[in-house]
Amino acid sequence: MLTFILTGSLRTSPPVRRNEKDKSHLVTIGERLYTESVELLRELVNNSYDADAAEVKISISADEIVVEDNGSGMDLKGLKQYFNIGSPFKKQNPISLRFKRTRIGEFGIGKFSVLSACDHFEVFTRKGDFAATAIFDKKEWDSHSEEWELPLRRETVSDKVPEGSRVILKGLKKKYDIESLERRLIETLPLKAPDFSVYLNGKKLHPQAITGRKIPFLEGTKYGVIHGEIIILPVSKTTHQDAGVLVRVKQVSVKRLPFGIQPNLLSRITGEVNADFLLLTTDRGDFVRDTQEFSAFGKGMDRIMAQVRDELNRQSDQKENSRIRRAMKEVTKNIESALLKNKDWCPPGLLPVGDPLRKGNDVASSVGKPRKPGEDEEPPKPVAPTSSGKKRKKRPHLKRLSPSALIRRMKIGQMNLSLVLDHFGPDGQESFVEGDIIYINRGHPLYVRESKNRQRHVMNVTRLICQEISLMSKPRNPRHAYERQSRLLRNAFIK
Questions:
Q1: What is the Cα–Cα distance from 253 to 42, expressed in whole angstroms?
Q2: CA–CA separation, 329 vs 344, rounded Å?
Q3: DSSP string, 384-451
Q4: Do 352 and 487 share a domain, yes or no?
Q5: Residue 197: domain span
Q6: For residue 96, how far is the Cα from the chain centroid?
Q7: Ramachandran area for residue 425 (φ above 0: left; ψ -120 to 50: alpha; else beta)
Q8: What is the rounded (10 degree) CA torsion for 90, 135, 57, 160?
Q9: Residue range 463-479: average pLDDT?
Q10: Which residues, at least 6 apart from 151, have a Cβ–Cβ distance to it below 8 Å?
Q11: Element (H, E) at 120
């Protein structure tokens, strides 16, 4: 453990001798562990959060940064603890006294993040009747090869100066983009916590408000609770900047993760998940992944993301359903025209329009009254068995459909067909027939590709319908089926 010994009028112990390797190690921690400006500000604000501050003010000028809070402040013992690397204080006292917050800090090295921004910083603090300023200057530090101490200046306690702490960074090494810092701080700070406000150059920072389909969740694991909200953005508001789900640990953002969402859909996914039980790397920029906690977290998120994928598919299906409805008139007209030119082998057994509906269990009787061309209809409903004991006609097996399935009644010539477009998996058949129902697999890779262009989409749906109609005519061999499909397509698209 590396310890600063506070000196001056309050010095209570002799300086501790350290060699150059110890000193170099301390500087390395500060200069290399936190490389981004937002990280050092995040760490300073997090310290204020842990100290029960209700308000934190960040002021940034050309050569100085000031972070001031109205937290509990520090006495002499607390100030020594503050400059103690690897201090166990927050682990031993994980809950704050005033607001009962779960403390964010863990390793006790965040305050040295300032060394990545400057070589001189001061820490002023007041608690009760104690007020003091500790000063760190790298030049003074480097001038002592073996002995080093941290100067402490006792300050006059005044009622005009409230309790709390102030950190001043002087002689900044680089300039800061305020707009960029504001955006990143909004993402990384615990701004949604009650009784906690942060100001940047006088402007209050508010959590980002995002519109979209919100999916709240609460998932339990044996290590703790996973909770949060995932937002599916409208296509018009997709963004790559905030894509993925932001994982927070103890109110602080750590990293955005895709959780298995495909890259082409990831830009539509944002949101947050809180998992306070996850273990973090030393710089708190990632998770310790080879742990049982992270494994349990991953399994819980898999269940949550399955709901997200279902919702993405549903939204995609709704948009595609709208396109299909507009295209079906053209598809129906094309196929009707083609069938009228091939009456010699048109599939038998389809219900003629105007025939009285029979009482039975076949698909026609379960659909209800004939509908107008292109009108949507409900899925065929099974008919409950009667107690008469009579042997009923075997009906076709009906697929269980998803809520976003599109079901259309097609009037083609003098016949009725039911067309169902639904997801049957990327490895499922492109299309198939059960009774008088033609199923088209909208999850098939070829269908997904062709649906992106309206003209190709119409052609592809027509091709699949013609394929199944040609098979419904019970050709004597595959060659006849191909020939019939080819003739239908030719008559449908070539005038």
A1: 10
A2: 25
A3: PPPSS-PPPPPPPPPPP--TT-EEEEEEETTEEEEEEEE---TTS-SEEEETTEEEEETTSHHHHHHT
A4: yes
A5: 20-204
A6: 30
A7: left
A8: 100
A9: 86
A10: 7, 8, 134, 135
A11: strand 120-127
Cβ(446)–Cβ(462) below 8 Å? no
| Residue 52 CA: distances (Å) to CA of 192, 246, 400 | 15, 25, 55
Same domain, 81 and 29: yes
In a domain, 307, yes or no: no
Q: What residue spans of 128-236 are helical by DSSP H? A: 138-142, 178-188
Which tokens sit at 225?
């609770």
Taking the C-alpha atoms of residue 464 and residue 432, their distance in angstroms, rounded to an integer, is: 9
Per-residue pLDDT reduced to its tens digit, 127-138: 999 999 988 887
Instruction: Go through the chain and tell me how many residues it has.
Output: 495
Whole-prediction pTM: 0.57
- 251-300 pLDDT tens trace: 778 888 999 888 878 888 888 999 999 998 876 778 999 999 999 999 99
Q: Specify the pLDDT at position 374.
A: 43
Nearest CA-CA partner of 176 in 201, 153, 155, 157? 201
Quick one: 118 and 182 in the same domain?
A: yes
162 found inside a domain:
yes
Distance CA 155, CA 147 (A): 25
Phi and psi, residue 143, nearest 5°: -75, -15
CB 236 within 8 A of CB 214: no
